[in-house]
Write a structure and sequence with these properties.
It is a single chain. By secondary structure, the chain is of the alpha/beta class. The protein has one domain: Amidase signature (AS) enzymes (Alpha-Beta Complex), CATH 3.90.1300. About 35% of the residues lie in helices and about 15% in strands. The protein has an eleven-stranded mixed β-sheet with strand order 1-3-2-4-6-5-10-11-9-7-8, sandwiched between helices. A hairpin with a 5-residue loop joins strand 10 and strand 11. The longest helix is centred in the C-terminal third of the chain and has 22 residues. The radius of gyration is 20 Å and the shape is globular. The protein starts with 10 loop residues before the first helix and ends with a helix.
């Protein structure tokens, strides 16, 4: 049998239980399915539950284990994916009301690779409509309702991977796949108190995924530990002939011994007090195992360039959607306007943004060449109340634009919980690395988590 506490275990803990015979893959899968169906709607976290597919896969994986075949760390681990990833025969809604009944006839490479590694797909998870590409400014921006962080019934889980963020800490899935163009993995990971990994651009195939920005979209895991993120990354990384942007580079290396990390002077000075206090405490922990040096972020209009590129590419990616009049059927009022505003991006502005990007990428690489990672607060605030706009809540708080810079340059980053701040909500710490140094940021985050214990996911079991 599977008790509730098992469902909030790490990938390694779940795997150990399966191999010890504490429960079968079918028992574990059924327990997750039941909890996903029961709790998922409370958090507006789930779109489609793939029960029959999951139980069939579970039986096959149980038979393999009984015969001595073990596919690796993900063998028998149930997972969910953001509903911009296609799965043959199931709806793929992109979080948008006009696409609620659309069924996919293909399966994303990431899903295929996870299933080949022994993962059990149990559901498609909610997301912000069109992955936020039309400029939403409030939590209620999906036909499934505003994603809710399980730590507070009146606060947002983050976007655009809202369902993935909510599902992981509450034990609705063993792990989840989200996507990030600019903050959509790191944000939900922070607000929901889990680990979220944004791989280097090109590490992971996007075949079968909704395109928002062809030159900035990335797929990555949300897990209950940084170690779990590494297991998932190893399963999905690698070139794919179906995605010409993927790279054929080995997933190897790691942090230096001893490591050296960079920090920005005053990085949390204008963040919420709880965010600032937790960040400063985190740096004290990091100083126990790494040298810490202060650096300056190269000066570029990162946010402006990123927004121009996303808007210009989104206008092209969603041209047919907008032409069909579907933007007028979206949930968020800002999205109904933003869909058309994207079409006003001028070619000269897009090209100038790309020129800024090229120079910024070069200078960021030069900066990070001397360090294993740049360490910053993940967000300037804790989760945003669902009854306010993002701008209103954040107007007094900010942090350096590392998230915009890293996404613009396609750099890997891993956010892990580092305590609780205002309203007893989670805060996060992000390790950002040089391109293709994914394992260095994972290694540093794992060491930080080995020395800290900020989140007890068992606390959430009694709430749901």
């Amino acid at each position: 049998m599977v008790d509730a506490a098992t469902l909030v275990g790490t990938v390694d803990e779940l795997g150990a239980g399966l191999r010890a015979g504490d429960f079968t893959v079918r028992e574990l899968t059924a327990a997750y399915l039941d909890r996903l169906e029961r709790v998922g709607p409370e958090l507006n976290a789930v779109v489609t539950v793939t029960r029959e597919r999951a139980l069939d896969a579970a039986d096959e994986l149980d038979a393999e284990l009984a015969a001595g075949t073990d596919r690796g760390p993900l063998h028998g681990i149930p997972f969910g994916v953001k509903d911009l990833l296609a799965v043959d025969g199931y709806p793929t809604t992109w979080g948008a009301a006009p696409l609620e009944d659309r069924t996919a006839d293909d399966t994303a490479t990431v899903v295929e690779r996870l299933e080949a590694a022994g993962g059990v797909l149990i559901g498609k998870l909610a997301m912000v409509e069109m992955a936020g590409g039309f400029g939403y400014e409030q939590a209620d921006a999906s036909f499934t309702g505003p994603g809710l962080t399980p730590w507070s019934p009146d606060s947002w889980s983050g976007g655009s991977s809202s369902g993935a963020g909510s599902a992981v800490p509450t034990g609705l899935v063993g792990f989840a796949i989200g996507s990030e163009t600019w903050g959509s993995i790191v944000g939900p990971a922070t607000y929901c108190g889990v680990a979220g990994l944004r791989p280097t651009y090109g590490r992971v195939s996007r075949h079968g995924a909704m395109a928002l920005s062809w030159t900035m979209d990335k797929l990555g895991p949300l897990c209950r530990s940084a170690a779990g993120c590494e297991h998932v990354l190893r399963a999905v990384a690698g070139p794919d002939p179906e995605d010409e942007t993927t790279v054929d580079r080995p997933l190897d290396g790691g942090a230096s011994d001893p490591p050296t990390v960079a920090v920005l002077d005053g990085a949390a000075e204008d963040a919420q007090p709880g965010v600032r206090a937790n960040y400063e405490a985190s740096l004290e922990v990091i100083a126990e195992f790494a040298a810490v040096e202060t650096v300056e972020l190269p000066s570029y209009p990162y946010e402006e360039a990123a927004q121009l590129i996303i808007s210009g590419e989104a206008a092209a990616a969603f041209d047919d959607f907008v032409e069909a009049g579907h933007a007028e059927e979206l949930t968020a009022p800002a999205d109904r306007v933003g869909a058309y505003a994207n079409q006003a991006v001028l070619a000269k502005d897009y090209l100038n943004a790309m020129r800024v990007r090229r120079r910024a990428r070069r200078d960021l690489d030069d900066l990070l060449a001397g360090y294993d990672a740049l360490v910053t607060p993940s967000q300037s605030t804790v989760a945003i109340p669902t009854d306010t706009t993002f701008e209103d809540y954040r107007e007094d708080y900010e942090i350096p634009p590392v998230g915009a810079a890293a996404n613009l340059a396609g750099l890997p980053g891993l956010s892990v919980p580092n305590g609780f701040g205002e309203r007893d909500l989670p805060t996060g710490l992000t390790f950002t690395g040089r391109a293709y140094d994914d394992l260095a940021v994972v290694e540093l985050a794992r060491e930080y988590q080995r020395r800290t214990d900020h989140v007890d996911y068992g606390d959430l079991l009694d709430r749901f």
